[in-house]
Every structure is written in C-alpha cells, then in structure tokens.
Write the structure tokens for this entry.
Amino acid sequence: MSSESSSRGAILFPLPLPEAFDYLIPEGVELGLGDHVLAPLGKRMVHGVVWALKPGPGDRPLKSIDSAMGGAPLPAGTRDFVDWAARYLVQPPGVILRSVLRSAEALKPSPTETLYRVSGTEPPRMTPAREAALDAALALGEASAADIAREAGVSGAVIKGLAQAGCLSAFERPVDPPYARPDPEGEGLSLTALQAEAGGVLRRLVRAGGFQSVLLDGVTGSGKTEVYFEAIAEVLRREPEGQILILLPEIALTSAVLARFEARFGCAPALWHSAAGPKARRRCWREVSEGRARIVVGARSALFLPFPDLKLIIVDEEHDPTYKQDEGLTYQGRDLAVVRAKIEKAMVVLASATPSLESLTNAQAGRYVHVRLPARPGSAILPKVDTIDLRETPPEAGRWLSPPLIEAMAETLQAGEQTLLYLNRRGYAPLVLCRACGHRMTSPDTQSYLVEHRYTGRLVCHVTGFSMPRPKRCPNCNAEDSLTSVGPGVERVAEEARHIFPEARIEIYSSDSASGAEIVDRMERGEIDILVGTQIAAKGHNFPNLTLVGVVDADLGLAGGDPRAGERTFQTLVQVAGRAGRAERPGRALLQTHQPEHEAIQALIAGDRDAFLDTEMMAREALGLPPFGRMAAIGFMARDPQSVEAAAGRFAAAAPLTDGVEIWGPAEPPRALVRGWHRRRIIVRADKAVDISAYLRAWKMRVKIPPSIRVTIDVDPYSFM
C-alpha cells in the first residue's frame, strides 16, 4: 500500500510503550506494513516498524516519519506473533518487538572487504620482500592485505605495490556471506524399523502441510534426532524457500548437533544464541529476514527471528526447564514455539525422552500427534537402575560417595569403562559458615548463600554474580580459620574421587567449565575415566564407553513448594541415567537417596514412566494446577521494604472478583532480597476456562503503581524463588 492511499502510519517502537503511535507519511515516500523507519520520539530518532496504515491526515497534529530504513519488511507472521505474545504475556507490544529487532545494522546489505589473490603477472622488479609476499598470497589463496603482509613478514606498502603492478588482483567479498544451502539428499544413518516408521509419519505430516503439532516421544538413545532429520529433509525437498528452526535448551549441545547436521545435510546451519558475537548475530538476522537462511539452530530467543517462510520448528528436549525465560521478558519457549507454528501455518515437533505433562496431556487429548520410539536401536538396551539407601549404607564421615557406589566405580575402572558422577551443584560447597558464631556467608544485599569455588579460591553468588576471595576470618565475629564448607558441589565430589582413585583421569563438567566442548570431545574419545558433572552433562551427549552413572544426591530437587518438583526430578534422573550404556555395552545407574520409596525414584527403578505420570497428573488435576489449570506470578520490587509491602497489598486488594480464580499472597518469596531490592509476590491460580492473561490485564489497569516499584507479570511461572 502506498502513501497515496495512506497518509498516516502507526509506528510500533521496541520500547515499553502501550501502543503504536500515529505519524504522517512524508509526501513521495511509499511505505508498506512491516517496513522499518526512523521516526522522532521525544528528542531522538528511533527505529520503529510500520504496524498499520491509515487513510487521511487524522484529527490532530502529527509528527512526520523521518525516513525509511530499508531492509526486508518484518513479515506478517512475525508481526502477528508479536501481537499475540504481548496479549498472552501481558506486556506492551514494544517489549516483544525489542526481542525481534536485534540490530539496525542487519537491515543494511553486508559490508564488504577487499581481498587479494595472485594474478600470475610477474613484478617488473622482484625483491625478497615481494617474493615472500607472493608466496604467502599463493599459500593463502584469497586474503586481505593485512593477512598477506602478516604471513609474509613484510609491510603493507609491499602489498600495495604488488597490487598497483597488477601482480595481486583485488576483489570485494561480503563480510557476512550467505549460508550454504543444505542438501536434503545427504546420506543419513541407517534407520531401524521403528525409526523409519516414525520418520515416515513426520514426512507424511510435512506433505499434508499447514499447522501440525507432533510429540516425538522416545527413550534416551532411541534416535530422535535422526527421525526429526527426516522431517527437515522433507521440508527442504518440498519447499524451495521454506525455513526451519531447531531449538536446543543448551548452547553446549550445539557442537554435537552441528556435527550430525553437517554429516547429514552437507553444511552447517545458521546459529543464533547469546554466545555468538555481534557480527554472527547480524549475519544470521539479515539472512533469516531475507529468506536466505534455510535452517537456524538456536536457543529459545531464536523464536523471535523474522522468518518470512517458516515451515518447521523442532523443539529438542522440549521438557527442559531452560526453555523458560525467567528474567526480563518472561516466557516459555516451548509454548511460544507451538503458537508461532500455528500463526505461520507450520509444523512443530516437540522431541523428548521425558515429555512435559503439558505436552503429554495435549497428546492424550488428540491435540498433538503422538509418535513413539520405545526402544534403542539394535542390541542396545536401557540401563539398569538401582538405589543406594543412604540410611543403610552411608558414606564415611565427611564424604559423599557411599561404599556401594565406590565399589561400582572400581569395577567400571577395572573394565576400562567410564563413570559419570552427577550432582547438580556447581563449585566446591553450596554453603560456607562460621563454626564459632554460626554466621552464613551471603551475597551483599541478597538473601543468597555464597558458593565456594575452591579452584579459584573465591566465594561466588550464582544469583547476582558477586564474588570475593575466601576470607581468613569470619566477617561477623572475626574468628580466625573458623569458616567451614558445608555440603558438596562437583569440585568436592571430584576431590573425593581423586583421593579414592588417584590413578584415574577425572574431569569436572559444569557451566563454569571454560572448555566444555573440549571436555565432551575427550569424554567421547575415552580420554576421561570419571566425569563429575552438573545437569549440563546429562543433556543429549553420547558417550560410547560410559557404562556407570552415579547420582550423588537423587533427593536434590524433591523438596520445596514447586508443583513441578517431582516431575522435574523424574525427568532429570531419567536423562542422566540414560547416559549410561550404548551399543554393545550395557549400562547401569546407581541413585544415592534417603527416599528410595519416593514415587519418582520408584518409577525410575521399575521403568514405569506412565504410572508415575498418571499419579502426577491426578495430583495436579485435583489441585487445578497446570496443565489442568493456569497460574501466574506477580512480582513487586522496591528499595524500601515498607514501600513494596504497601504496593503489593494495594495491588492484591484491587483484584477483580471472578469465579474460578484463587489469589495467594502477597508474601515474601524465598529470596526476599536481591541486589538491594526487597521482593514480594502474589500467586494466581485459575481454572483452565479462565483467560488468565485478560484477567491480569484488567487487574493491572485498576491499580496505579508508583515508578519506584517494579512490577513483573509471569504467566505460567517455573521459578518460585
């Protein structure tokens, strides 16, 4: 639509503003929906997007749009997704748009760089420096003047002279080159009958077209990745410009998936995650928006990329809690992936060995196609799972590994096989306290214990990032050498393992590990005997020689008021136990626990997932908790405890009276003080028929909160800290 028929444009800015604002379209400027523009907002020019076009000049004076910015327009599907997410998450649409618009530089064509190659022309006068430069250029093939000069050990003037003499040919190349196009006919692994059947179902659904939701439910090691590769290949064959998004819960999994992807499709996909640098993200965003990036592998934030022709979304390990964003814009990536697929009329595949109750409920209700992979390929079998009752066979005093687990580790080492010791606690000890006065070391202005990291000699807060050297004296009573470490972290477990098995090759793998990919590679090559790891070690890795998994504390996570605690513990234990045993090597898992009778642990031992999930579902349904009800959390933060208490109380008092809605609080969360901000929280539970987002919007409009109070709304909260 041109400015001849529309003289006004509603511009949405990536800012926490309540709506899009109207601007005049300058004469002679043609704009369409989704176009990127610069428009005055206050005293500055701001990047915005044309969200609507309107006829006539309107009934009030308007500012004019400054200029169009170029680049591909934001696609209709992306704009609809922004609007939907804003309504559902109870956020201004500009806050959602901010997650879409990552870089104004990505709207421009790729910058270029000048490269040189040997032309074959001999210089009129050969010198040692020129000869060295030509040899270097020949060896490098195509390179910048700086790279050739550095390789040859000569000055830039030598390169310039050779170029002027025609001995080096200059040419321009994009700094951000297009991604290679994947080949759908690449040869994959041979599929078993079960895998081929599952892959056939996915291919048929791709051919049917339109919105489809699939739960790919397969035990650990059953080949889910190869199966969903079949869906990817079918999209590549049938949709010449169709785009595919693969979501992963952890960046650490990327290298393993990339290797398998390149082996199957002949090239690497585009990558999108927080660890990628600005240049890589700029390239990815531009190539996606222009439709040239066919496949993107990324973290949850990749959902907000501006795909013009999205045909397939894969959510790998869909149950993983890291798909929930808990800070800033809060959202559940798995749920938003399903919605984005519906808006784009695309197919979404949710893959997991331990599906979430939400996904299983949808599959049982027929809303998702349920594709099962109940067995590992070939002769591989699932590991045998047993418990070690710590009430009967406890570790030695001051130790954390029980005699039965130590014996099993010794047998595994003797057989030349590998052990994984799993404990989801980083550092050396989760708590440091004073033996003299009982003082507990906490982070300044935060109710969070400092975790001891003995390798660095520091105490670290994993909530705020604060760190300090471990003090010699207690800061409370000044007693010297009175601080003691309480409880184990992975560093402490590794220290104990080294004491027991001094000849073993032992490594620690956690999110603190600087070389996580290297550790995974060495583990795969059999260069590590005992790997001590947190949850990051339990996700998606294939260690062929790993036959023993020892869970140091299987009870961790069962306590507390989190309604998903049992489900999460069961999922984690299944995932970590599933690392043991592949191919011809049977595996076993030993769970150290004080609660061997707990239903999650009993279900794992019996291999009866369905019985455990049925029990969980009945409990959730009786209480009206997700997926049989809806929940939200309203958070309040202020520098002053009285102010936050008063604001939370006023907000609670203004709650609309509605059948099917329960309100709990306001109350202090477990971490009532973070970075000097005092916190209160209200929990809302609603029946499934209640539109909880609309309820929260109406409630929010009833109360005026002073600017000194920060209010956050989290629909379907996962963290209760």
